[in-house]
Design brief:
single chain, elongated, about 40% strand
C-alpha cells in the first residue's frame, strides 16, 4: 500500500521545483506530521522551466487522483499513488508531481 503524504513528504515538479504544502488541518497525523488532504494548497518554488516565449514555471499543484478510500476530517487524503498536476500561473499543466520521499509507517488506499 502506498504511504500517506504528510507535511514532511518531499515532492518536486518535473523541472526541479520544490512543492511546499500548506495545510489548514493539523489534527490528523502520520509519523508525527500532519496528513495532506486533496483540498490543501500546494505551492511550487524554484521551478526552472522557461520557454522560448518567456518564463512559464510551475507555481501550484492540482490533485486529480487523491486516495480512493482513505479520508481524514471528511476530505480525501493523498498518497504516493495520488496524481497531482503541476501548473503554471495561467493554469497550463507542466507535468506530474514527483513524490521523492514520504513516511513509510502509515498507508492509505
Amino acid at each position: 500500500m502506498p504511504g500517506l503524504l504528510t507535511t514532511g513528504s518531499v515532492m518536486m515538479c518535473p523541472h526541479g521545483g520544490t512543492v511546499q504544502p500548506i495545510t489548514t488541518d493539523t489534527r490528523v497525523r502520520a509519523a508525527g506530521s500532519p496528513v495532506l488532504l486533496a483540498s490543501d494548497t500546494f505551492v511550487i518554488v524554484g521551478c526552472l522551466l522557461t520557454l522560448p516565449s518567456g518564463p512559464h514555471p510551475c507555481v501550484s499543484v492540482n490533485w486529480a487522483v487523491p486516495a480512493a478510500e482513505s479520508q481524514a476530517v471528511g476530505d480525501a487524503t493523498l498518497t504516493e499513488a495520488s496524481v497531482g498536476f503541476c501548473s503554471a500561473a495561467d493554469q497550463a499543466v507542466q507535468g506530474v508531481v514527483l513524490v521523492v520521499a514520504t513516511q513509510p509507517r502509515v498507508s492509505g488506499v
